[in-house]
C-alpha cells in the first residue's frame, strides 16, 4: 500500500490557529481587549485592574497566573457585566 492509499488516521486532530497552538488552548485566556469588550467597552486601565484583581484572587488559591491575562472560565464565573 503506498502513501496515497493509506487510510486516514483515527486519532483526533486539534485544529490550530496561526500561533501553532491547538485551538483548545488558544482561547483559554482573555487579554485586556477581550475584557474591555466583555464589560461593555470599559477603559483599558479599568480592564487591567479587573485582571489584576482576579489574578490576585487566583494566586491566593495557589494558582500560577499570567500578567495581563485571566482564564476565560474564571472570568465568566466571577464577572457579571
Could you characterize the architecture of this molecule?
With 81 residues, this protein is mainly α. Helices cover 43% and strands 5% of the residues. The chain has four helices and two strands, in the order αβααβα. It has helices at 23-26, 32-38, 44-60, 72-78; strands spanning 29-30, 70-71. A two-stranded antiparallel ribbon has the order 1-2. Helix 2 crosses helix 3. The model has no long low-confidence stretch (mean pLDDT 81).
SSE inventory with pairings:
Layout: H1 23-26, E1 29-30, H2 32-38, H3 44-60, E2 70-71, H4 72-78
Number of helices: 4
The coarse overall form would be: globular
The helix-strand sequence is HEHHEH
Oligomer: single chain
Mean pLDDT, to the nearest integer, reads 81
Largest sheet: spatial strand order: 1-2
In short:
The chain has 81 residues and is mostly helical. The chain contains four helices and two strands.
Identify the notable features of this structure and list them briefly.
two-stranded antiparallel ribbon; mainly alpha; 5% strand; single chain; 4 helices; 81 residues
